[in-house]
Amino acid sequence: MKEKEFITVIKQVLKSKYIGDDCAHLKDIGIVVSQDNLVENIHFSMDYTDAYKLGYKSAMVNISDIAASGAKPVYLSVGLSLPPNTDEKFIKEFYEGMQNADKSIDIIGGDITGSKNILVSVTAIGKCLNRKISSRKNAKPGDKIIVSGNHGSSAAGLRDLFRGHKNNLTNIHLMPEAQVEFSEKISTNIKRDYAMMDTSDGLMDALEQISQSSQVLMSIDFDKIPYDKSIEKYEDFKDLILYGGEDYQLVACVPEDFRINGYYEIGRVEKGLGIKIDNRTIKNFDNKLFNHFKE
Amino acid sequence: MKEKEFITVIKQVLKSKYIGDDCAHLKDIGIVVSQDNLVENIHFSMDYTDAYKLGYKSAMVNISDIAASGAKPVYLSVGLSLPPNTDEKFIKEFYEGMQNADKSIDIIGGDITGSKNILVSVTAIGKCLNRKISSRKNAKPGDKIIVSGNHGSSAAGLRDLFRGHKNNLTNIHLMPEAQVEFSEKISTNIKRDYAMMDTSDGLMDALEQISQSSQVLMSIDFDKIPYDKSIEKYEDFKDLILYGGEDYQLVACVPEDFRINGYYEIGRVEKGLGIKIDNRTIKNFDNKLFNHFKE
Fold this sequence. Notes:
homodimer, CATH 3.30.1330.10, 8 helices
């Protein structure tokens, strides 16, 4: 995977302790920071979305990164590059969408420039307060693996969009909800270091990242992964659940005796390395993961 | 100017107290944050630069924003979108360039995605520490107007690049230096609120922004603006000095009796509105300012 090779190169050049999780944890300031680029015709198409929904999702994608760290999302900054024919209506609706993603978050500015295609780069800042900040390095054998909700809906929704449909699944794809409350319940109650990620690049990708960073085996019981039954209209719905991406749910590895309201236990962390589903080791699934650099 | 009209719309939608300066000042955390997008074939061309210089300048442009606030630049995050044919060498050199812009600054990660053209969005974080943070709203009649150094070099350098030259001016265009020390001298010594901006969009643009935000008249003595004599080879070098942009110098309005080592006093803040150069009021210069949305 080219993206991962690039990140290896970046780590070699920078020797930075901050690179590895979706958020950088700046302990001296007590904040976490994340940044995501959304590029027209790569991450979204104006054929299927509009300015309001794009603003909404751009904010939400970054709020989700902050939620994955366990911090409280407080500020968003946005670098927006737009084609010359952009009108004021687009700007107005984009920012209304961003603001409505979470009204408790302040949008603090950023940059606005010209461009051939639409480029949105959002930076999110979260406060650590008295919360425990996660790292994908922190999964331990014996932990239970929990998720916040359904997987596969967003990928099925994207297919529905291609077919010109409008339904609950397409809504989930266009306007996902970051799992801010789930994040808060964990990070304010947990006593021990823990691993948490969002499943923006798919559940399997998140499991693989945690496995590699923590050097553990993720043992999953497929039937326990929650999903919306309406995706069963797609024959390969099981692949959508595992590899679909953009559901912006959270997956966490927490102690066996840790309890909060409202989660789905989908498996256990074991000694070893990689991913097992229903006791079958899953190998070489890179080609199923989304890769922007695929040629 | 379309960019400014857009910013007016954004202010109306967000009603955010943070929008107005290049940096947002987050007092509850004690930091300032800025974000800038650099877009291929709008802000730069790979015909004239390379990955190392692009990384260097991308960092420096944002370090300059932090310097303009008076804060200490400490962290950079970068969202990088790159064409599918990008190789590891590009990534390596880009990050080496970023790191070498200021080795005291930590690069904390960000995002890497695909794109048709190169897009670099850098977010910079500065610590306020015991420094006084500037705002373009703070200029007062009686203040002296000071700059940190030469204007016009970068714009002349860009012209030289178009002509295939390589010299001191082209270096200044490709690898500018943010005025971090000048900023620190002011913000750690000044006792009163003050206005400061970088001249990334040109000296006149900065003067106009301060004039509008502070509702004051900026009276400039043209002969006192420092510049590199080698730009006199261009007949319109005076326009390059005033409107050229990308010199990343600082312009500040400080009390008459404020002294630091190493600055150029170029004029005075007076009661009124707008800009006077050598006692002549300058009007309607919008068409001379750089505008990415010009069609």
